Amino acid sequence: MEFNKDKVDSMTLALLYLVTTKDKYGYRAWKGFDWDTMDRLYEKGYISNPKGKAKSVALTEEGEKLSARLFKEYFEVPTS
After folding, report:
1. What tens digit of pLDDT does each residue of 13-24 get?
2. Which of 71, 44, 40 has its CA nearest to residue 60?
3. Helix/strand/coil (H, E, C) string of 25-67?
4. pTM of the model
5. What are the extents of the domains in the chain?
């Protein structure tokens, strides 16, 4: 099946917001998503290299901001 990889990347980046924490080094997210998608997010400059033993990846400043914006865009319930 063919699919729109950019849309999958955007949705994955939005979902990373759910599993993101901030520590003294910056923002980190659990990397339990499709490896090809995570590699593309790395190539686009949104996360650190997902290859390795660590169970999380660092989000770049741009990746953190975009992750939060996409999460709100896709999932936020409007207040009345």
Report:
1. 999 999 999 999
2. 44
3. CEEEEECCCCHHHHHHHHHCCCECCCCCCCCEEEECHHHHHHH
4. 0.90
5. 5-52+59-75
